[in-house]
Amino acid sequence: MNVTLYHYSACSKSRAVAELLDAAQLSVDVRLYVENPLTQAELSVLMNQLGILHPKEMMRTKDALFAELGLDQEGLSQAEYLDAMTKHPILMERPIVVIGDTAKIGRPPESIQAWISALAS
Fold first, then answer.
1. What pLDDT is stored for residue 1 in this prediction?
2. Which InterPro entries does the entry link to (predicted)?
3. Could you say which of 3, 11, 45, 50 is catalytic?
């Protein structure tokens, strides 16, 4: 089972999900996405894996930076949101776990544990 964790080590939820994956003894590729931002193409793939239609659904919309950048305005294109995440990766919701071709945002972390259990059965 291929597992990727989009991880931000300063985030307690992200650390909790990393611990859950470790406890499940899964081999995990960890991407520190703040230090190694995703490209727009990678973000588009991740959107498909999450099953979402708009990049805003995988962004930290309550973060002050979101409003500072004017991302709370109506009528912005998907490309503008994707561009903002490539330039300011801290805006990406965290953590995100990808297992195979499916992804899930790990909030709350227990949702990842339930997901792993469901996949294992």
1. 74
2. Arsenate_reductase (IPR006659), Arsenate_reductase-like (IPR006660), Thioredoxin-like_sf (IPR036249)
3. 11
